[in-house]
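Listing 4. Sequential folding, example run.
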Amino acid sequence: RRRRGARAVKILAIDTATEVLALAADDGSARASLALRRGLQHSPALLPLADRLLAELGFAARDLELVVCSVGPGSFTGIRIGLATAKGIAFAVGCPLVGVSTLDALALPWAGFAGGVWSVIDARKGRWYAACYRGGRRVTEYLDLEPGALRARIAAGPVPILLAGPDAPRFAESIPGIAATDLFDPAAVLRTGADRFASEGADPNSLKPIYLRQSEAEIEAGRRDGR
């Protein structure tokens, strides 16, 4: 989508916050994207796949005018890989960088759903990251919950219910009759970032990772310090 009269912008979007490596590119007249489930082994493939995607549209990284990156919640390592790569590209090219929530992007393709769309991501250690959306707007905070607590929140929310995200069908197994989709549309990351840039510009605050809990390194440091 583009505002009438707005100049076309060459954009690359990156999401490495989940087990799915998601990339999308737009040159103003065409769009290309890919989504590969790689089990968080994103680093070796990220730059080569990004270069290939840009080449499909006939331009290179040096031509980029905006980079968009997911800032989580999700895998701590995955978020760091994506952000470091996006910052490196944006710095080398001299173009703006915008961060977006992974949960927001997962919900975007289902903005027209008549009910509650719950973006869910397996947070490991028996917990889930989640947020609820209605009519394309987030209606809860970003959550980090045990499965039982998340099921209770979902049951108390708007109906009908759709779970969205790479791990959504697995979580749906614990809720009989609920609808779920594992579609991860990389273009949703791009669209979310492009819209944010159009309305807010390159706000540095958007680049803060969304960490809903401490990393293992922070937990271990706390143990050593007696916290």
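-- end of first protein; second protein begins --
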Amino acid sequence: MITASEALERLRQGNQRFVANAMESSSPLPDGTVPEQQPFAIILSCSDARVPAEIIFDHGLGDLFVIRVAGNIVTPSQLGSIEFAAEKFGTRLVVVMGHSHCGAIAATLQELQQPKGVASPNLASIIDQIRPAIEPLKANPEGLDPAALQQEAMRANVHASVDQLHRGSALLESLAQNDGLKIIGAAYSIETGIVTFFPDA
């Protein structure tokens, strides 16, 4: 079993290769056989088309168990998917990854600052999930410019999702206490390609 620390180092090295344009993974299709998946990390990230985890971490088929949803929010289906991978494959690292210029974060900030209502109840459910994490930023007490405010909101949302994973699953809590599971946050910069893992990583 790959430890959480080893998995984190693999992700760091893969992202360094991506940023340096020295990628190694080509992910060829298998020749008539289906390889076993053995994901060493679970990634909960945004659905944004500019944030493909396998590419930005330079890993191939079967290496990462990726769950993508707008705003990298935690709902029962995402939580169940993470539990499945952690238990089935023994994966011991979960990364919740937000990113710069996140549309879901921008929409939530806009709705907080200038409420207009959201036409789709499904989209509203995403905003409602993000809202509690970033509501304290609504008044912008530090006078941040819009880009900095959105960055702070993204980070707050990632921290909230990490917290939800820690306290929302008895299975994950047990694995964290007894079997070396780690749940950490990260942020991807669309501008630079760099993934920054939060200090608790």
